[in-house]
Write a structure and sequence with these properties.
The protein is α/β, with parallel strands linked by helices and 193 residues long. The chain has 5 helices and 7 strands, in the order ββαββαβαβαβα. Strands 1, 2, 3, 4, 5, 6 and 7 form a 7-stranded mixed sheet that branches. Bound molecules: guanosine-5'-triphosphate (GTP) and magnesium ion (MG). Guanosine-5'-triphosphate is lined by residues 19, 21-27, 50-51, 53-54, 78, 80-82, 141-142, 144-145, 169-171.
Length: 193
């Protein structure tokens, strides 16, 4: 849930990266940390080493600038993607202001992407406390891989709801900032409702 403190002049958003195991969630957070090296003071910072599976979660608190005179602080989380961690994922996703679903574009991962997106949607519906659903941005990651699934097929399989889409090569930083910006825009739009 977003927190707005007018006295201390900040607004905090919780943004969560979900998606199947190995799709590039932690990689997104690593690249974001390079872009915004100043963390929110006195906040825990937990990040997996690159290429290691996330076991609990990754957390990255950052300050990214100001909106209407208020400091914008983002608490960015990545859930563990391995199937086994379903309860942990549900916990980390609770109270998210917006969620990035990181898709693995590798050719043989389509079904896995679809099933794990269905799980995310189920959990968000169960967690939902307000009338407004949590906005989801789809990130089609690993576009650099030869044999990556066609965008048209990804769209037909994963994007019936016509959600915002960002194509990415997270490992090179491509599409990472765009995804984060889109999450902020969607979260703020939802807040305004
Ligand atoms: N080729 C390619 N590899 C990528 C890309 N993004 C991430 N990877 C690699 O994919 C592997 C898994 O990335 P992670 O970021 O650890 O994946 P994750 O989604 O956090 O995985 P879990 O924590 O197990 O759920 C790593 O070796 C990354 O370097 C990309 O855009 N292209
Ligand atoms: Mg991870």
């Amino acid at each position: 849930m977003a927190r707005i403190d007018l006295q201390r002049r900040f607004v905090q958003l919780k943004l969560v990266y979900a998606g199947p195991s190995g799709s590039g969630k932690t990689t997104n957070l690593l690249r974001i940390r390079e872009l915004f090296p100043s963390p929110v003071e006195h906040s825990p910072l937990l990040l997996s080493a690159e290429g290691t599976r996330t076991v609990f979660f990754d957390a990255l608190p950052i300050e990214v600038g100001e909106i209407q005179g208020l400091k914008l602080q983002l608490f960015v989380y990545a859930v563990p993607g391995e199937e086994f961690f379903v309860a942990t994922r549900a916990l980390i996703m609770s109270n998210a202001d917006a969620l990035a679903y990181v898709v693995d574009s590798q050719g043989d991962h389509l079904e896995h992407n679809r099933d794990s997106l269905a799980e995310v949607e189920r959990v968000l519906t169960l967690n939902q406390r307000s009338a407004q659903p949590v906005p989801i941005v789809l990130q089609y990651n690993k576009r650099d891989l030869p044999g990556a699934t066609d965008i048209a097929l990804l769209e037909a399989t994963l994007n019936q709801k016509d959600r915002p889409v960002v194509e990415a090569v997270a490992v090179k930083g491509t599409g990472v900032l765009e995804t984060l910006q889109r999450l902020c825009v969607e979260a703020v739009k939802q807040l305004q409702k």
